[in-house]
From TrEMBL:
Ketoreductase domain boundaries: 8-201
Protein family membership: Belongs to the short-chain dehydrogenases/reductases (SDR) family.
Organism: Thermohalobaculum xanthum
Protein name: SDR family oxidoreductase
InterPro entries in UniProt: KR_dom, NAD(P)-bd_dom_sf, Peroxisomal_Beta-Oxidation, SDR_fam
Domain of life: Bacteria
Length: 304
């Protein structure tokens, strides 16, 4: 195997199946040596297949690549460190971290229990921080490295019944940008991808209406393998000038997503009162207010 990542070492968390597996296999095809991390749990976090990581790694080796399986959790400091140590012990270095691990505990906000909130935050957001932090010391010393974090249009735009997931995924965008800014001087890059692909993360989408059924049918056409090339590019030296950005990949489409910036302003020399704001703000800002849309409302055309 050879390609854009020849000689580089990558960690992919949550790589036992779905998007993570496709990314791990795609990176190996591009020449990377891969640490396939997965604890082998269901979508909601219960134990399912403890050998998932090793099965994916074995498949990569069977095709001529180099890979090891890793079953450590991303959500605890010590185990996150061991994931990175596995890369160093197995391959001598680390060049790319792909934070993909995640679970779901969906519930309408007013019915969401604290443990449902915390479980999702711990894996997605805390896990991304811990694994990134464990790799950061190596990136700093070698003055190179790349992070690719999986966000979601559920966080960037919105979705019903996913306050925990939305908060975690939008938090990952902030984390990625902070890493990009703090580690720029060491030649380290950090970017996000919002993947559109049929996987466990989207298989729980409700199909109660005809519109939802049509949406899910379209999602099933988008395979996880479509995400891997963008991850490989962002992890390669070819993406040297790309950092702190948010992309989306939807079948054969690649998007650069906007990030919050001022869109309108009001100034009042004597300062504002609540009454003055009530009089002027709705008319001035109303046309520019962001509507309460779901991801499906914004990405409303058929994938190409």
């Amino acid at each position: 195997m050879g390609g854009l990542l020849e000689g580089k070492v990558a960690i992919v968390t949550g790589a036992g199946q779905g998007v993570g597996r496709a990314v791990a296999e795609g990176l190996a095809t591009e020449g990377a040596k891969v640490v396939v991390n997965d604890i082998g749990v269901t979508l909601t976090g219960e134990s399912e297949n403890p050998s998932a990581a090793e099965e994916v790694a074995a498949g990569i080796r069977d095709r001529g690549g180099e890979a090891v399986g890793n079953r450590e959790s991303v959500s605890e400091p010590d185990t996150a460190l061991r994931i990175v140590e596995d890369a160093i012990d197995s391959f001598g270095r680390i060049d790319l971290v792909v934070n993909n691990a995640g679970i779901l505990r969906d519930a309408i906000f007013h019915r969401m229990a604290p443990d449902q909130w915390q479980a999702v935050i711990d894996v997605h957001l805390k896990g991304s921080f811990l694994v990134s932090r464990a790799a950061a010391q190596h990136f700093r010393q070698q003055e190179s490295g790349a992070f690719v974090h999986m966000t979601s249009t559920a966080g960037l735009i919105g979705n019903f019944g996913q306050a925990n997931y939305m908060a975690a995924k939008l938090g990952i965008v902030g984390l990625s940008r902070a890493i990009a800014m703090d580690m720029q001087r060491f030649g380290v890059r950090s970017n996000c991808i919002a993947p559109f692909a049929w996987s466990r993360m989207v298989s729980s989408i409700p199909t109660e209406t005809e519109a939802d059924k049509i949406r899910v049918a379209k999602l099933k056409q988008m395979t996880p393998e479509k995400i891997a090339p963008m991850v490989a590019f962002l992890g390669s030296d070819a993406a040297k000038g790309v950092s702190g950005q948010v992309f989306a990949v939807r079948n054969n489409e690649v998007f650069l997503m906007s990030q919050p910036r001022p869109v309108r302003s009001l100034h009042r020399g004597e300062g504002w009162t609540a009454a003055a704001l009530a009089e002027q703000l709705p008319g001035a800002f109303g046309p520019s207010l962001t509507p309460l849309e779901r991801s499906a409302d914004v990405f409303s055309w058929d994938p190409v």
